[in-house]
Write a structure and sequence with these properties.
The complex is a heterodimer of chains A (about 110) and B (about 120). In chain A, the strands form two sheets. In chain A, strands 2, 4, 5, 9, 10 and 11 form a six-stranded mixed β-sheet that branches. Chain A has a five-stranded antiparallel β-sheet with strand order 1-3-8-7-6, with no helix packed on it. Chain A has no helices and eleven strands. Chain A has about 110 residues and is mainly β. Chain A is globular. In chain B, about 0% of the residues lie in helices and about 50% in strands. In chain B, strands 2, 5, 6, 7, 10, 11 and 12 form a seven-stranded mixed β-sheet that branches. The chains are: A mainly beta (about 110), B mainly beta (about 120). Chains A and B meet through strand 5 and strand 9 of A and strand 6 and strand 11 of B.
């Protein structure tokens, strides 16, 4: 079967750095998305990786290793507004999007 | 800016009722999707559509149907609502992939309660 694993919850301190991991086992791979979802709101697109390596976008970076079936989202200089759930989603060989259950990130002052 | 609009943020219906959830996008996207989101389960795909009058079953289509009469509108129908359909329903749209996968853009969601 197809599976995406993320930690259920993480806690970090304002101003610090946090890394949210995502591992996947899917039938084929055509890219990986990260989304941010604040409580009670819609998911919003953060990043897309299809090749190995690091993609940087301001305070957020996303890394992919296709051989390891692994990605992470790195958040720097954490702010209180970064408290949200972070969803990892993989596009399989049929171009279907497989979603992880999400990681709830709690930022403490 | 991208805009996906769902007709209701909160909705309360009774068991056995026929329920309509409406979704409209203004980005001329070909693809539209309906998901439900439950705690600890992530997003689960109910139905999707790649074109007008076209529909495909997702992972959990039982108890649901959809309609896409116009490109910008995708409706989800609960034929006879049951309590286990109480959930957050999210609509999304995306461009047709032209080799590189396109991100999905989501509406604000409808929190549906079936009593």
């Amino acid at each position: 079967g197809q599976n995406i694993d993320q930690p259920t919850e993480m806690t970090a301190t304002e101003g610090a750095i946090v890394q949210i991991n995502c591992t996947y086992q899917t039938s084929g791979f055509n890219g990986l998305f990260w989304y941010q979802q604040h409580a009670g709101e819609a998911p919003t697109f953060l990043s897309y990786n299809v090749l190995d390596g690091l993609e940087e976008k301001g305070r957020f970076s996303s890394f992919l290793s296709r051989s390891k079936g692994y990605s992470y989202l790195l958040l720097k200089e954490l702010q209180m507004k970064d408290s949200a759930s972070y969803l990892c989603a993989v596009i399989d060989s049929n171009y279907q999007l497989i979603w992880g259950a999400g990681t709830k990130l709690i930022i403490k002052p | 800016d991208v805009k996906v609009t769902q007709s209701s943020r909160y909705l309360v219906k009774r068991t056995g009722e026929k329920v309509f959830l409406e979704c409209v996008q203004d980005m001329d996207h070909e693809n539209m999707f309906w998901y439900r989101q439950d705690p600890g389960l992530g997003l689960r795909l109910i139905y999707f559509s790649y074109d007008v009058k076209m529909k495909e079953k997702g992972d959990i289509p039982e108890g649901y149907s959809v309609s896409r009469e116009k490109k910008e509108r995708f409706s989800l129908i609960l034929e006879s609502a049951s309590t286990n359909q109480t959930s957050m329903y999210l609509c999304a749209s995306s461009l047709l992939s032209g080799g590189e996968s396109q991100p999905q853009h989501f509406g604000d969601g409808t929190r549906l309660s079936i009593l």
